[in-house]
Amino acid sequence: MTVVIFAERADATIDAVVHELRRRDVPVFLADPNWFPDQLVLDAELSDAAWSGWLCTAGQSVVLQDIRSIWCRERTILPVSAELSFNGVLAALDHVLWVNHPIRAADAASRPLQLATAVGSGLQVPATLVTNSPEAARWFTNGTHDLDQVSSTLTEFQDPVETAHEAHIIAIGDHTFTLASHEWIVTPPSVERALRRYMNHLGLTYAAFAFTIDHSGHWWFHSSDADQFDRLNTHPNAPLIDTFTDLLTAADT
Q1: What are the residue boundaries of the MvdD-like pre-ATP grasp domain, all occurrences included (predicted)?
Q2: Which tens digits make up the pLDDT trace of 16-34?
């Protein structure tokens, strides 16, 4: 069974994951979405309520039924003119694990949705206002911010949190890894449970989070940003690549 990786360019994280997959003798199909349609071909036929066919480039191919997981390095696979049908065929392969499905990833990138989902999942979020009304912003901030540009675009304001330190969490499948004060620590159980609800609600198999920890030890949700994986993976003893590879190969276990 093959792991499919869609990425616009190679980088250290992709190289590390591909190296680990190949060390485990797992076939890899790596393609740049910009190769479509000249160098990336999808040939799929519907039969008995299932799609069968091939995904091909000039130098590699994979049978659709032999795909075990798809890792989308970017949030979308293809240009808008083609992504609906291309993503739709791949999404209809019900045996495939997505990390993450591009529609789910695009939804999860919405800052207002992140904040609302965090609160609904049991995480602490500072009081927040999104507005292009200078009057509303002035009331919310007690006049402590420069409001000259507020009327020209939506602006987010949050109550300040007195920061003791920051924490970054990578969630890979059922595992979480937390870096705080430059050390890997155990994720607080209440935070881990809330993040599991967050990911289930948004349909994510992988996510990265930033938190602010105040002087009383309360964890405040700051943001979700999948790109944190690259930064955290450079820290000593980072356990991320092995676990991420486990996730990509989980469809066979």
Answers
A1: 11-74
A2: 999 999 999 999 999 988 8
Cis peptide before 142 (omega within 30 of 0): no
The token pair at 240 is 């991320």
Asked whether the beta carbons of 32 and 72 are under 8 A apart, the reply is no
DSSP annotation of 9 reads S
Options 3.40.50, 1.10.287, 2.40.290, 3.30.2010; CATH of 2-99: 3.40.50
Q: Is 146 helix (H, G, I), strand (E, B) or coil?
A: coil
Q: Where are the domains of the chain?
A: 2-99, 108-124+161-252, 128-158
pTM of the model: 0.88
Instruction: Decide if 137 contacts 147 (C-beta within 8 A).
Output: yes
- Give 37-42 contacts, CB < 8 A, sequence gap 24+: 37/82, 42/86, 42/89, 42/90
Show the tokens assigned to 18: 């591909």
User: Which residue type does 233 have?
Assistant: N
Q: What is the CATH number of domain 108-124+161-252?
A: 3.30.470.20
Whether the CB-CB separation of 133 and 152 falls below 8 Å is answered with no
